[in-house]
C-alpha cells in the first residue's frame, strides 16, 4: 500500500514539482498546504503517513508546525529548507523532525529519505506505545496496592485476602481491577480517610 503524504510549501511551483515527483515514485498525495497552520489542520483531519514541510512559511513556520505534529503524534516530518545551518538542524531535531532535506535537492534523494523516515516512525510509535502501556500498568499496580492497603486497614485483611477481594469484586461487577481499586480509593476519600 502506498504511503499517504502531505506536502506543505508556500511556493505553488515547488508543491507542484513535489507532487509530480512523489506521485511518480508511487506515493499518494492526500493534501497540499500553503502555510503551517493549514498543514497542521490538514494533518489532523487526513492523518497522513508523512508530512513534508517547508521551513519558511507564513502564519506558522515549518518548525512550529513540526513541533505540533510531533507533540500530537500525528505523523513524522521531513523538513525542506534552503538553509543548512547547524542551528537550524538543532532546532529541527528539538522540534521532533525525522528528516531534513536542503533545497535544491535531487528528486532521487526523496525516496530513500521518505522510506527511512517511515521505518523510523514505526519504531518510534511502537516504543511510544510500549511506554504508554508500561506507564498504565504501573499506575494500575500502584492503585491496586493502595486499595489493598485501605482494605487491610478497614477490615483487618491480609495482603492476599485484600487482593482476592478486589479480584472478586472486579469479576462480580464486570470491572477491571483498576476500576475497583479506584472505587475503593474514592470511597475512602469521600469518607474523609
Automatic annotation (TrEMBL):
Residue positions where 4-aspartylphosphate is found in the record: 54
Record PROSITE patterns: ANTAR (PS50921), RESPONSE_REGULATORY (PS50110)
Any GO MF annotation of the entry: RNA binding
Name of the molecule in the record: Fis family transcriptional regulator
Domain ANTAR: 124-185
Highest taxon in the source lineage: Bacteria
Residue stretches making up the Response regulatory domain: 4-118
Species the sequence originates in: Chloroflexus islandicus
BP GO terms, sorted: phosphorelay signal transduction system
UniProt keyword annotation of Phosphoprotein present: yes
One of the Pfam families matching this protein, by short name: ANTAR
Keywords: Phosphoprotein
SMART domains xrefs: ANTAR (SM01012), REC (SM00448)
Amino acid at each position: 500500500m502506498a504511503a499517504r503524504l502531505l506536502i506543505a510549501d508556500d511556493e505553488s511551483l515547488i508543491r507542484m514539482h513535489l507532487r509530480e515527483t512523489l506521485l511518480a515514485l508511487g506515493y499518494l498525495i492526500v493534501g497540499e498546504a500553503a502555510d503551517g497552520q493549514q498543514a497542521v489542520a490538514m494533518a489532523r483531519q487526513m492523518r497522513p503517513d508523512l508530512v513534508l514541510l517547508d521551513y519558511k512559511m507564513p502564519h506558522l513556520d515549518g518548525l512550529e508546525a513540526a513541533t505540533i505534529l510531533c507533540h500530537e503524534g500525528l505523523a513524522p516530518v521531513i523538513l525542506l529548507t534552503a538553509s543548512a545551518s547547524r542551528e537550524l538542524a538543532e532546532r529541527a531535531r528539538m522540534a521532533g523532525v525525522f528528516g531534513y532535506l536542503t533545497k535544491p535537492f535531487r528528486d532521487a534523494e526523496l525516496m530513500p529519505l521518505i522510506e527511512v523516515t517511515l521505518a523510523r516512525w514505526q519504531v518510534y510509535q511502537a516504543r511510544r506505545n510500549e511506554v504508554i502501556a508500561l506507564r498504565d500498568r504501573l499506575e494500575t499496580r500502584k492503585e491496586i496496592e493502595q486499595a489493598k492497603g485501605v482494605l487491610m486497614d478497614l477490615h483487618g485483611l491480609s495482603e492476599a485476602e485484600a487482593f482476592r477481594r478486589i479480584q472478586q469484586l472486579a469479576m462480580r461487577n464486570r470491572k477491571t481491577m483498576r476500576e475497583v481499586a479506584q472505587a475503593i480509593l474514592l470511597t475512602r476519600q469521600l469518607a474523609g480517610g
